[in-house]
């Protein structure tokens, strides 16, 4: 029990520090966003320059959202859950995600049949998919296949009750994980990416999915790729 308490205190301290860094970082992103906007207002801007600076603004906006996420990590941020169709959200993100993962990775959104609605903050679902896709990208430095799918699935939840969930699967053909890694991936600040990782991606995903009443399963083995399965309670039949 005592060790657990110490762990909680340590986490709190680290969380506060991360939130402080995120706060400063947000200021930096805001300044960059301002200058990118200024470029867009220049007279007789070549169309390409306009497009690219528009992109910069969008990317900085995502960074902004991420820092927001870090700042609120662990706090009970107010959510705006709505009834959403996960397939629509996945589709709307497809081209953005494809750009993000580079062209050595082929992204497929497998959305055959209609799925049930879920009750979730859509910005948080987007953040979740983004985090999972970024991890898949990092796991496939020399390219591979990335598939996102959604379907209804009957499964026993962690309480032993069988229910129908919307299953969102993010599968990659990347490096996979050994057992130690897999046992730790949801711990905040656990990363195998050194300087390049924050270790917050999956901790955030875990928080979002459990707040939506769902749970996560992971299939992964070294060199066998990874599938992250998000089970989110459905609210009605399709
Ligand atoms: P970060 O990406 O900053 O390291 P995450 O919490 O998102 O933080 O991930 C924690 C760790 O889980 C990663 O460092 C990596 O070792 C492992 N991991 C997550 N997703 C994958 C994946 N798709 N393939 C292989 N390893 C993964």
Automatic annotation (TrEMBL):
Question: Tell me, what is one Gene Ontology molecular-function annotation carried by this entry?
Answer: phosphorelay sensor kinase activity
Which reaction does this enzyme catalyse, per its entry?
ATP + protein L-histidine = ADP + protein N-phospho-L-histidine
Give the highest taxon in the source lineage.
Bacteria
Which keywords does the record carry?
Answer: ATP-binding, Kinase, Nucleotide-binding, Phosphoprotein, Transferase, Two-component regulatory system
EC identifiers of the protein:
2.7.13.3
Keyword flag Kinase: yes
**Which enzyme class?**
transferase
**Domain Histidine kinase: start-end pairs:** 20-236
What name is this protein filed under?
A: histidine kinase
Species this protein is from? Povalibacter uvarum
